[in-house]
Specification:
5-stranded parallel beta sheet; alpha/beta; Rossmann fold; 17% strand
């Protein structure tokens, strides 16, 4: 079975984007689509990195664990909370930490805001950074508007039917890219 990592990068107290990470984990498990691993940056206390992992002389066990979790995933969903038209520094920090781990990795982007635009202002900038890292960004996007009204703290969607249909299409594209990559590597 394929493995999808869900990167939840917000480290803010009272964050709402993590609700969407929980929703995706639950949806993937309930539908038997893949194994999941939520990589919650709030569980780490990363410093600002001044060098890539491969050039660090003595990377911490936490850094090696994080890199291993990204490396072992067949595909990744990154939840991208929009902060003032951009993405959080915690996300940029861990993207820049790695390089080989991102190369040709299928990455699906779910943008999140508590307003009406669903993170639409951040999608191009995060996509560009991932292209530079040579990640394979999946063409499907999953914008989430009014996140605190759309999902509760446990990741349960207010409108389960619509959320399920949108998740199925979004995850279908990610799974297609994972399968295509697997076949290309054979």
């Amino acid at each position: 079975m394929k493995k999808i990592a869900i990167l939840s990068p917000s480290v803010r107290s009272g964050r709402n984007s993590h609700r969407v990470a929980l929703f995706f984990r639950n949806y993937i498990i309930e539908n038997g689509l893949a194994e999941t691993d939520i990589i919650d940056l709030a569980d780490y206390n990363f410093p600002l990195f001044n060098e890539r992992l491969r050039l660090l002389k003595e990377p911490s066990p936490e850094i090696l664990s994080f890199a291993g979790r990204i490396r072992s995933a067949d595909g990744i969903i990154i939840l991208v909370p929009e902060y003032n038209g951009g993405y959080p520094a915690s996300l940029k920090n861990v993207i820049d930490l790695l390089y080989d781990e991102w190369r040709r990795k299928p990455v699906a982007l779910a943008t999140v805001s508590d307003g009406p635009f669903g993170g639409s202002q951040v999608i191009i900038s995060i996509q560009f950074i991932l292209w530079k890292m040579k990640a394979w960004t999946v063409p499907a996007q999953h914008p989430v508007t009014f996140v605190s009204k759309s999902f509760d703290e446990k990741g349960v969607a207010a409108d389960r039917e619509t959320a399920g249909k949108r998740a199925a299409a979004f995850l279908g594209e990610l799974l297609w890219c994972i399968e295509a990559k697997s076949r290309m590597e054979e």
